[in-house]
Structure formats: structure tokens, C-alpha cells
Amino acid sequence: MTILATEGLTKRFPRVTALDRLTVTAGPGVTGLVGANGAGKSTLIKILLGLLPPTEGRAAVLGLDPATQALDIRRKVGYMPEHDCLPPDVSATEFTVHMARMSGLPRGAARERAADTLRHVGLYEERYRPIGGYSTGMKQRVKLAQALVHDPSLLFLDEPTNGLDPRGRDDMLALIRRIGAEFGISVVVTSHLLGELERVCDHVIVIDGGRLLRSSAIGEFTQATHSITVEVEEGGEALAERLRAAGHAVTEHGRLLIVDDGAPGTHDLVRDAVCDLNLSLVRLEQGRHRIEDVFREEAAAHV
Ligand SMILES: Nc1ncnc2c1ncn2[C@@H]1O[C@H](COP(=O)(O)OP(=O)(O)OP(=O)(O)O)[C@@H](O)[C@H]1O
Which family does it belong to (predicted)? Predict the structure, then answer.
């Protein structure tokens, strides 16, 4: 099944070509739309929602044409815009109920759905306070809740991690993964931060200057390498030392250790070393190429 498809999609503004003959498709699951600021991500979403007409080309969302069936699309799609667009004087509950009513839900159902959705996105007692006093992370959650409240089949999330601190970012990414996996809602999520999408996406579309650079399943971006990634809460240096003493090449990237996996038994060795040193293991997994590396190589090849 195709969730979205474009063919020769072009959008020219007076001074800039935001999309340049973009032909791409995406299936169900979580799709990352990656590109630097100004790459054309928001423009693409606005065209797919029928908010902006393309200059040339065609698009389809859930089999519907944004040029003629925009209302049908909006019934089935939730949209979390990039910029702050929340009214400061009302509470998250009032706002989300209002958005549910706008989608056609009766009053009682709108209240129930709003309460459920706000709980899902992690807003509890504070949902009764005016939005104006919320942190950026809480505002992002309200934007997500209003996109989810009418039970869409597809969500467009435009830069949902913008302005969040690392913890807030992790929470938001986990939430997106859950929406995709547990609720079976397909998600198109944009980011200019390539690295963060590899954790949550099934498929990644990379655009640059309005053109398609690459569209692939995440596995093709991030093939296994001959290395193991290890993360411990504390004591990374001691662990690195121990593994080096056992003859393994180890590089440190912040809290992550990348351990050369040339010989059999490396996983066991890491496990035993973590145990001996009494460390808390956060992660022990096969190393993968990172989207960021692939993007850098492909962007360089296009210059
Ligand atoms: N309404 C508009 N009028 C004129 N130019 C526009 C308009 N909207 C977008 N652009 C331009 O089109 C290009 C693509 O913008 P777009 O917002 O789609 O990029 P983006 O990838 O979403 O980046 P960002 O994350 O910074 O918003 C940019 O050069 C932008 O300045």
C-alpha cells in the first residue's frame, strides 16, 4: 500500500524553487523526511495537505489527490506544524477538545478523546493550565495531541523535536515510535537532524535543495558494520581500557564505545567486562552505518 506518492512535483516561489521535480513514494510505517533547513520539507507537507498548490507535477496521499480532495485528506490525516501556533490563553484540554469538535466529533466523544490523547502524549494535571505558561516540550506535546485527536490514519509531524533538550528529544522520538508501532498510525516526520531519525524510522527520504537525494528502507542506510556499540551509564573509560587490554580497538564517542568486532566472542567479552567492573549497561548492539555518514557521502558525490 502507498501512503504518499509524488510525480515530478515542483513548487516555485518568486525567488526560489522549493521543490524540483520530486518523484518519491512511501509505504506504511514511520517515514523520515530529512533535509537541511530550506530543503523543501514543509513545502512538501503543505502540498500533500492541499494547503499549497504545486507549480507542476502530481501528488497522492492515501490514494487521494490534494488538488481536488484536500478535505477528505484532512479528515484522515493529522498535522503537527513546525511553528508555534497555539493560543496562549486556553488550556491544553480546551484546545484539544476544540480541535476534536472541529473534526466533527460530538461534544462527549471529543472530551473523552481529548483526555485519552493528552494522556498518551504525557500531559497530565498541567493540561488544565493555560498553554501560555507551558515549556517548549509541553507545547510540542499539545501540538502532537491535536494532530492525533481525531484518530487519523496518517500523521505529518513537521520538526517535532525542534527546541527540545536531549531528554525531551528522546521522549518525543519514543512517543513517535509508539504511535507508529502500537497504534498502527503511519507517520511522516521531518527533521534536519539526520542522526535522530534512524532510531524511529522504517524508511528515510532525503531531500536537498528540493530534489530527491535518496529514498530507502532504514536497513539499507544503516547496514551492519564489523563493530559493536556499547553504552554504559558510567565507567566508559575503564571499560574501554579493559577491552583494549584484551586486544580490541575501541573508539569513544561521548558515552558510546565502538568496539571492533573482528573476532568471535566479542559480545561475551564485553558482557563479562561490564559485569566484572560492576557497570550499568544501557546498550549492547551491532554497530551500524549512520544515516549521517551516508548523507555526507552522497551529498559530496552530488557536488
Ligand atoms: N511562502 C513562501 N514564499 C516564498 N518562499 C518560500 C515560501 N515558503 C517557503 N519558501 C522557501 O522555499 C524553500 C523551502 O522552504 P521549506 O520551508 O519547505 O524548507 P524546510 O525544508 O521545511 O526547512 P525549514 O525546516 O527551515 O522550514 C526555502 O528557501 C524557503 O525560504
Answer: Belongs to the ABC transporter superfamily.
